[in-house]
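Worked example

This section walks through a single chain of length 112. The input is the sequence exactly as stored; nothing has been trimmed or padded.
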Amino acid sequence: MRRFDVQYVAASVDDAETNARFAASLNLDFPILSDPTKTVARAYGVLSPSGYAARWTFYIGVDGRIVAIDRKVSASTHGRDVAEALATMKPSAPASQLSALRGENPELKANS
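Given that input, the structure is written out below as tokens.
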């Protein structure tokens, strides 16, 4: 991931203390944002009726617009999947022209 000029974070509906313990247990090198009120999860459309957030990946351009969403996140392959998606994006193009679509992955949708 470090070869890409990106920032990455995780988000969780758990409280900050729970997220800090989780991050420490896995030696994560990125922040986990806490959303215990579930406001952000609702806004991004990932909050399930059970109150848990779905594991989706949002690719956000430098202009703050969502350029792609991966709705089929697998914990076992997520790092590789993100790296592959980032490799398909054109870093010098405006966010509205970025495409994370790969012909073999219709679940990765680009928004314009």
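What to look for: Confidence is low (pLDDT under 50) at residues 92-112.
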